[in-house]
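Allow me, if you will, to draw on your knowledge of protein folds for a short while. I have a record of one protein: its chain in single-letter code and its fold written as discrete structure tokens. Could you please explain, in whatever detail you think fit, how the structure tokens follow from the sequence? The record follows directly beneath this note:
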Amino acid sequence: MSTTQKVVVITGASQGIGAGLVKGFRDRNYRVIATARSIKPSTDPDVLAIAGDIADPAVAERVFKEGIARFGRIDSLINNAGVFIAKPFTQYNAEDYATVISTNLNGFFQFTQRAIAEMEKQGSGHIVNITTSLVDHAVKGVPSVLASLTKGGLNSATKSLAIEYSGTGIRVNAVSPGIIKTPMHPPETHAALAGLHPVGRMGEIRDIVEAVLYLESASFVTGEILHVDGGQSAGH
């Protein structure tokens, strides 16, 4: 087993932004540990695909145990998996709340804690949290309290972790997307969603991948919330 190639863990890696991130990091010759609830085994020997719910501590334990056994190191973690439920605040129920909290916060905690423990051993590492521009720029007609509660927490945690580990060689950043053209948005909604961005279009998966890869190579950047939102956070 060669341990010279860098290794990245990517959550929510089966489709959309997550699948784009897997390709983007493989194009940079990273080995990838990819996880999602419905992910299929990979035919690429440099991609280890592990199916499971990231909110389950046993899944996080398995991802890092098997990943390290296979590749020997952990250099980066991309906390990409997330749940968004758009409902008026008073219509959220206990199941909605538990679902969003378990994925957006518990999953982040389980994976990030294990990743940092491994990164500390080698004196280097990088974590990127995928959040949302709605945290900074609420949109009329897009109810997003649970997203703001959880992803806003990740923005704050990004800055806190960046400072806590600033002297260890570990960097922590976030990418805050606008509305991205993924399978979760039916084509008939694209025109209306494009109009929610000052630049007049939805984001593409490559926009987020390029932002994450920029942060990956930006060694003097930590604690940054990088908005990739077509101007949403700046206002209309």
